[in-house]
Amino acid sequence: MHRFLLFFLFPLFLYAAELHLPVQSVSENGKSAAVKVDQIAEGVHGFIVRHFTEDHSAIIADAYVSKFDPSNGEATLALSEYTGLKQNSLPKGHWPVQPGDEAILAFGYSRALLIAPSEDIYHIISSQKISAESNGSTLTALP
After folding, report:
1. What is the DSSP letter of 99?
2. Which of 21, 59, 107, 115 would be 35's cystine partner, CB 3.0–4.6 Å?
């Protein structure tokens, strides 16, 4: 019975957690923003959400962590246009990112289930440094 229960509960631990952070400041050109966070890896991707009312919000920009300064706990987000829900038939709002908007960053990219054909190969792969590319979810092993 315990194995049956663990079989269904185990996948819940594999889902990535999200970080919901308020935007602290935005650059003058609107291409970057700063958020305060304890720890985050460069390249973590997410988006910026504007809450118009308690019931209405919209994704207004795409974002990824371009730089993290551990001394002051500030992450710099590179901003770009969000095109994930593009629909040419509908009107599109132009809302620049401003302080107080919410940055939702997908955290926990290091959570993965590594399946290897043998124990030796598992140790070779797991001892490699892994770097997340900023162009998507592609992972590259570094020697």
Report:
1. T
2. 21
